[in-house]
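Quick one:
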Amino acid sequence: MARINLLPWREWERERRRTEFIARLGVILVLGAAIVFVVGFMLDTRVESQNQRNKFLTTHISQLDAKITEIRSLRKDREKLLARMRVIQDLQGNRPVIVRVFDELVRTLADGVHYGQLTMEGDDLAVRGTAESNNRISALMRNLDGSDWFAEPNLKSIKEDPVNSDYGDKASSFDLTFAQVNPNEVGEDE
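Output:
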């Protein structure tokens, strides 16, 4: 029988398989490293891209916030200007009313009555004056009550004033309050 030694063949085969295994392992390691590198690179580019988007959004958000604050300040300025315009329009509209109030004060003034002081707070007027007699004060109050521009005459006080040089010993000093109304506004409300 022939003797064949199969041991070196087995060793060669084992060595070939080992080198083949190491080569395959090296290829797999290189492919794995390449895949990790490529995936890492893709993730890095996506993160960088998202960071650029975030930076873009934050810059535009800050620009929009600045515009919003500017709009708010412009709205406040607009409201202030509108309030001023309303005040001016009210003053312009009330100019003829003031003239009419003074005209109506003269028209309702009864004979023998003298105004000493006239004050106006809002729509309330207060008159301090002197009259020849109490009847003249009553006539003044009736005239004020009959006027379209005045309402609610109220006599606060009346005192005899015999030392008054204008009207004599029957003279009286009085304090009277009444409200100023605008007949045009009353008609508009109805």
